Batch of 2 targets.
Target 1
Amino acid sequence: MADRGPPRTDEPPLDKGQHPVWAIVSTLLLGGFIWWVSQSWVIAVAAIWGLFVHEYGHVLAMNRLGMGPARIYIIPFLGGVAKSQRLPKSEWDGVLVSLAGPGFGLLAAIPFFAGFIATGHGEWLLGAAVIALINLVNLAPAPPLDGSKALGPVLARIHPNVERGAMVLIGALVVFWGVTTGRFILAAFLAIALIGHLRRGAWRPEGRPLTGRESAQSVGLFVAAAVACAGVGIAALLPLAGGSLPGALGVAGGFLGIGG
C-alpha cells in the first residue's frame, strides 16, 4: 500500500520514521505470525520479503516524482506502508506511485523461483505464489489498497460520486471476503480504512486531475499489472498442479479462499 502523504497541505510534516527497534520487533512479530499460520519458514520469509519489496517500489516512485524522502512504516500483523513527505503534483503521479508497488513487487518472486530450480522443493514455488498474491490483492480497487488509487481518479472523471460509490461497494465486498475467508485482521483493517474514506471531507485532495489520455493509460497500466501478477502466480502454481491450468487455478482459489 502507498500513502501519498498527508491529505491536506496544512497538516504537519511526517516524523523522522519509526524507531528501528520497534520496526524490527514488528517485522519479527509479523513473520512469526505468518509462520504460525502457514507452518512454513519459506512462506513466512516470502511474505515479509514480498511486502518489503512491494513497499520499496512505492518509495522509489515517490522519490523519483519529487514526493520524498519517502519511508516504509511497519504495521504490526498487516505489513507496511510507504509514506511520502509531499502530495503528488498530479493524479497521474499518484497512479504511477500506486502501480509501482505491485509492478516492482513481483521482482521479489525471482529468488523463490531460483530456490525451486536449485532444490526442486515445491515450497519455494508456494513462496513465489504468495508474493504474486500479495501484489494482486493490493490491486483490488478498495480503499486503501493500490487499486483504488489507480482506478479512483479514472472514475472521478465521470463524477466524484461514481468513484465514491464504486470504492465503497468494492471495499464492502473485500471486507466481506476477508470475514468469510477467516482473514479477520485484514478485514478489520480494511473496514477501518473504508470508514475513514467515507468520513473524509474532500474525496480527491490530490493535484491536477487526470487527462483523458492519462485515464486510458491508467487503465492500461492497471490491467497490465493485474495480468503480470496473475501470470507470476500461475507460473508458480503450474508445476505444483502437474502442469494443469485448472489445477493451478484451483490452488489459487484455495489461497484466496474461494472455489471448491
Note: The beta strands are 2-3, 71-75, 79-83.
Target 2
Amino acid sequence: MSATDVLELRCAGRTVASYTTRPGLSPHHSPRPYLHPVTTLAGVPVSELVPADHPHHLGVSVAVPDVAGHNFWGGRTFVRGRGPTELANHGTQRHEGFARLAPDGFTELLSWTAGDGVVLREERILRVRALSPTAWALDLGFALTDASGTGLSIGSPATNGRPGAAYGGFFWRAPKKATAPAVFGAAGDGEDAVHGRHGDWVALAGEGWTLVFAGADEETRRDPWFVRAAEYPGVGSSLAQDRRLDVPAGGTVVRRVVTVVADGRLDRAQAAALAREAVTS
C-alpha cells in the first residue's frame, strides 16, 4: 500500500485517526475504506481492525450486508432457512477520488461495485473537530445513490430472518478487552436497553475512553441502534431493521452520525451534553 492510500486526520494539533482508501484485503472481507487507528486526544486506541472474532470488521466504516443481494459487510451471508452461508457475493467499495481534502476531513467519491457493475455511488463527507481538551468529534455523513437505473433494496440479516441482527450502515468496531465496556444511552443502561431501539444517542465506555454516538438529523435518528458489548464491542446505526429499505431508480439514501471520542469514563449527563454539542456545533 502506498503512502497516498492512507490519510492522517488531525484535531487540536494531534493525529487522531488514519483513513485507508484502498485496503489490500481479501474479497471475502468486502474491501472498503476505513478509519483505523482512531484514538482519543490522549492517544488511547478506540478502534479495532480485522479482529480474530470477526476479521471483516474494519475499524470505522460504512458497511451493508445486503445491497440487492450483494454483501458489502464481509464474511458469511445470512440466508433465510439456511443461516450464515458462504456465498460468492461480496462487493467492493472503490475510492474514486476526493472532491475536498484537508487535514481535518474530506469529501470522498466512491463506487460500490459487485458482479459486473456499479450498484451504488456514494458521496462521503467526514470532518473532525475539537469539543474540549479531552474530547473531539468525528462527523461522518454518507449519501448512497442507486446506480443500477432500476432501483434496489437494502436489507440486513434481520430482514432475512435473523432477529436482532439488523446491522448495516455506519459501524464502529471498538477494541475487545477482558472486561466488556459499559453501555448506556437515552433509552437506559445496558445492551438490552439500547440495542434495536431508537434514541438520540448511545454510549460505549471502556477503560480510559468513552464513545458517544449521535444521529445528526431526523432521518438518521429514526434508525435504531445496533449495539454489541458482551460478545464484542461495536455500535452501528441500522438502515434496515424490520423491513428492507427501498431505493428507487436514481434515488438517494442520506445518513449522518457524529461520534464523540472522549478520554476517561463519562457519566450520563456528560455524555448527553457532549452529544448535543457535537450535533449542533
Note: The chain has a mean pLDDT of 96.
